[in-house]
Structures are given as structure tokens and as C-alpha cells.
Amino acid sequence: MDLAREHGLSAQAVRNYERQGLIPAAGRTATGHRTYTERHRIALRAFLAQLPAHGYATAGEIMRAVDDDDLDVALRAVDRSHAQLLRDRETLDAVEAAVGVLTAAAPVEPRALPISAVARRLGVTPATLRKWERAGILTPRRERVTGYRLYDADDIRDAELAHLLRRGGYLLGHIAPVVAQVRTAGGVEPLVESLAGWRERLTARARAMLTAAARLDDYLRFIRAT
Fold it and tell me: How much is the pTM?
């Protein structure tokens, strides 16, 4: 199948895309064989360009909406993806701004501290720390008998990061994913090593979005002209 070979796909992959509504339904010959046209070629090219830019689910939403002649739905899906990329960039910027300060911060005591001691260390109130906990930023464990919160070294690091970002004007909803990135990396130092790769991935996705937009516009122009 020429359509499949053009993109290094199997014939079955193209049929699967057709069945899932990611490209238009093919015509059939009198003997039941599928026939693909220039529209299918441009549609497949557009869909494949959406994948690295927006992911499989959003790419599918975009293509189905276009073929249903619902451009508003398609463009909203594109807009949501761009908005997510911007949030990811802002998160990365916040992490890069914070890691240097955290790396140079005073060492954290090895023993777990109660909420009052952590509040004094940061110059905030215990109520503030509880608010950060409700926002999903902090996850201190509870003392087995009394139920009091205990903050270990990682919890204190997260609290210091949250405090730094709050003073920088970041909202709690934005701080939570930053702290999650630090936790996932296993601390500040491993995260520093991953920042360059993280930015490269965001740049690659942004470039993919440019290509995806061009391919989608090609498809829209073809539909409008036919």
C-alpha cells in the first residue's frame, strides 16, 4: 500500500487509523478493496505530525473534529496543548530559579522536626504549613501515638522550596508540580542534572507543534478547496 509505505507504516496500521476515525473512511472497489485518495495522504500526514506535538489522545481529538467539520473543537484541543506546554515551561523556570538557592541552603537536620520547629525555621506560621499540605505541596508523616506531624529532611526541603517560590509570587497550584519534580528526581542535585534534558524535551515538543500546525493547515486548506 503506497500510503503506508510513504510513512513507513504497515497496511494494518493505516487500516487501524481509519477504523479509529483518525483519517477519513476509504472508498471501496467493486471487489471490496480500499481505495485511498490525496485527501487520505494529506490527512495521514497531518495526523502523524500531531502525535509528537500533542500526544495520541489529543491528536485523535483534533483529527476527528476536523473530519466532523467542527473546527472550533479541533482548535480548542490545540489551544489546551499549547497552554500545557506554557505551564510546563513556567514550572521548569521556577525549578531552575529555586535549585540554586536550595543547593546553597543550610543543611537540614537529620532528625524529624515538628510543625512548630519547621515554621520557625522558615519564619511562617504552622497554619501556613497546613495550608501547603492541603494544596498537595507537603506530605509530612504522622507520629504514631499522638498523630502530630513530623517533617523529615525531604519534607523540610520541600517546605523551603515552597517558601522560596511563594516569596517569588508563585501560586500554590503552580508550586505543587515543582515540588513534585524535586521529589521524583530524588532531591535537588539529581534534578539539576535533568534540567537540560527537560528543557530540550520542551523545545522539541514546541518545534513539533510548529510542524503539526503547518500539516493541519495543509489538511484544512485541502478540505476547503475540494
Answer: 0.70
